[in-house]
Amino acid sequence: MQAVLAGRSLSDSLAATDASLRASAQAVSFHAMRRLGLATALRTALVPRKPPDTLLDALLRVALALLDTAAAAADPHAVGRPGREVPVYAPHTVVDQAVRAAGGHKKLQSFKGLVNGVLRRYLRERPAILAQAMRDPIAQYNHPEWWVGRLQQAYPDQWRALLAASDRPGPLALRVNARRASADHVLEAFGGAGIRAFSPMPGAIVLAEPRPVQALPGFEQGWWSVQDLSAQLAGRLLPVADGMRVLDACAAPGGKTAHLLERADLRLTALDADPARLARVGDTLERLGLMHEGVTLARADAADVAAWWDGEPYDAILADVPCTASGVVRRHPDIRWLRREDDVARTAALQRRIVDALWEVLKPGGHLLYATCSIFPEEGELQAQAFARRHADALRLPAPGQILPLAPVGAGDGTGSQHAWPQDAASPTTGDGFFYALFAKNG
Hints:
By secondary structure, the protein is α/β, with parallel strands linked by helices. It folds into two domains: 2-142, N-utilizing Substance Protein B Homolog, Chain A (Orthogonal Bundle), CATH 1.10.940.10; 229-441, Vaccinia Virus protein VP39 (Rossmann fold, 3-Layer(aba) Sandwich), CATH 3.40.50.150. It is built from 18 helices and eleven strands. The strands form two sheets. A seven-stranded mixed β-sheet has the order 7-6-5-8-9-11-10, sandwiched between helices. Helix 3 packs across helix 5 (54-74), helix 4 crosses helix 5 and helix 5 (54-74) runs parallel beside helix 7. The protein is globular, with a radius of gyration of 23 Å.
């Protein structure tokens, strides 16, 4: 929490957390991020002056996020009681552990009494303090006001549902590596291990409950990769065939790269500007048995074509360009607090620069798939329309366009599984927010 309030990524902070504590730290911090608007308003109501220490401020916000959830869970008349996926502790446990945390840290020992008094006061006066806090729109929606405003403008009938979807953890979805296994084979192995799972569309598997991926059957054997259902569409939409020269222009962490290589024997180049993230692409391909002499990993800025292109055009290009990641906020709940409104225009400009550069290295008759994990139209439909206007030789082909994390992926297209989904499991087939536009280059 302290890192995010300072503008740093929650993922980076969790990566530096002791491995034995990481899963529980992630569960608590993810929930706190999803309730940060309310927790901040509660802290302000209870401690109007900013706490003298940033770590104390972070501790209070985490504790208040958990404490309000605990109080709601204990109230049989509460509206919107937390679901099974939310960490819920008894109120006295939250207070006790927060006070212990303060007492166990040399910077916070003198604030034990403050922590105890603030949290106990909230439990005593919760209705009045909560009503005061909820007058703040950020507390109501747990998103920045500019974010809410953009969704209201873009989706006047769905913005509330989109905000609610952002606060529900996404299901754990896997993509089966067709070169090593089948969905039926993986489901049989999962069933033998007592793991409930379901196949909502060909090659995809969703678990009823999240589990550590390394503990699932088939991880070491490369039977599958973790990949959201919406993201799995990228590898299906780009037309590829054996022998094609293909470019994955923004490849990390490598899930879409792997999917393309699973589909066909390709001469594939995977680009990424970050060396650490590019290394993850290589690790993914090695685990899945997809690394071969026709695959090239290159650290490069995709828009700086002169720095990496050898002059031979590509048959197909996947442009999964950088974006605000507004479509994957349910999996990365800190994103909403780290982004700023001007980031939308900044990433849109970067996207234009990348796709215009990539269009020049595509063969006549070739295909470019534009993809973003965003639900902001400036990074999706508006970007695709502007691209078509700039390039007279670009023919836009059928593709899903904007996918919202509200409807089942593959609904109505005949790809859904006939297997019954457990009624007590989270909705299995909703994917993350994504946008896809497919273009062919006229010869």
